[in-house]
Specification:
The chain is α+β, with helices and mostly antiparallel strands and 115 residues long. It has 2 domains: 38 residues, no CATH class; 65 residues, no CATH class. Helices cover 24% and strands 21% of the residues. It contains 2 helices and 6 strands; from the N terminus they run H-E-E-E-E-E-H-E. The strands form 3 sheets. Strands 1-6 form a two-stranded antiparallel sheet. The protein has a two-stranded antiparallel sheet with strand order 2-3. Strands 4-5 form a two-stranded antiparallel ribbon. It is elongated, with a radius of gyration of 25 Å.
Length: 115
């Protein structure tokens, strides 16, 4: 009998915490409600999306490439664009051999998403 009361007490407590307390976000309660998480966010704010530059320089061969037609790869959070699959494969095999884009590489541009 004592063990039954033990499970009822702790099971009820866990249920209440998950439903109304600190675990409510796990169960999806309260999302999208004014005054809840993200109350500092703008009401009609659209999510940001990354927009690539129109052109960039292939770090392997130094050619200028149009990013919409280029092969791309991501290394340590930076997007690199290549003129060909071969240049991309050379870079991916040993990225440390190629200069850090730093000043030469275009910084990420962000704009509001419209769709």
């Amino acid at each position: 009998m004592e063990s039954l009361l033990y499970f009822i007490f702790w099971g009820g407590l866990i249920f209440l915490l998950m439903r109304f307390g600190c675990g409510a976000h796990v169960m999806g309660h309260g999302h999208g409600q004014p005054g809840e998480h993200g109350k500092d966010a703008l009401p009609n704010a659209e999510p940001l999306r990354w927009v690539p530059p129109e052109t960039d320089v292939d770090p392997v061969c130094g050619k200028t490439v149009h990013t919409d037609r280029a092969k791309s790869a991501v290394h340590e959070g930076t997007v690199y664009y290549f003129c060909s699959r071969e240049c991309r494969e050379l870079f991916e095999a040993a990225p440390q051999l190629y200069p850090d884009p730093g000043a030469d590489h275009h910084p990420r541009q962000e704009e509001h998403s419209h769709g």
